């Protein structure tokens, strides 16, 4: 399957940005009353705001682009036909896994598309909540009210992103090892 240049560019920016963001979370110190944030926290905040911009542009492109990957492919949850295709694709993947193989990546996979759609939702939720914290939080005061709820949502989505990264990168590497050239397809000739 071939992706257009802009989709590949967005994927590269989002992949690099999210991976960097997740690595920064391992080194950052959150500000609290009486404790300053470190440089990793500050980098996390500003990179997150930049990623929100990239994600907004990516969402816009997803709505208007023509090609093999439609919005319905990323979010099959609202169509009986797409849910049926997702179920069939899951069964196909299970059958292939029992043979220690994976299906070809020549055609868009409903399973891969639905996982990618969930990843976009998780990334967008993290970027929105993180940017709200950047804009509205006072590092010298404890977060209360709605902003505390936003922080809780942001923190709850962090482990979901780690899980998504493990699944998405792991599946991509497995396909690559099996000769499907998924990395070249997504990142070649941006």
UniProtKB/TrEMBL annotation:
GO molecular function annotations of the record: electron transfer activity
Top-level division of the source organism's lineage: Bacteria
Descriptive protein name: Cytochrome b561 bacterial/Ni-hydrogenase domain-containing protein
InterPro entries according to UniProt: Cyt_b561_bac/Ni-Hgenase (IPR011577), Di-haem_cyt_TM (IPR016174)
Biological-process GO terms, alphabetical: respiratory electron transport chain
Transmembrane segments: 12-30, 46-64, 118-137, 157-178
Membrane topology of the entry: Multi-pass membrane protein
Pfam families attached to this UniProt entry: Ni_hydr_CYTB
GO CC term, one of those recorded: plasma membrane
Compartmental location: Cell membrane
Alphabetic keyword roster: Cell membrane, Membrane, Transmembrane, Transmembrane helix
Species in which this protein is naturally found: Terasakiella brassicae
Claim: Transmembrane helix is one of the keywords in the record: yes
Residue intervals of the Cytochrome b561 bacterial/Ni-hydrogenase domain: 3-188
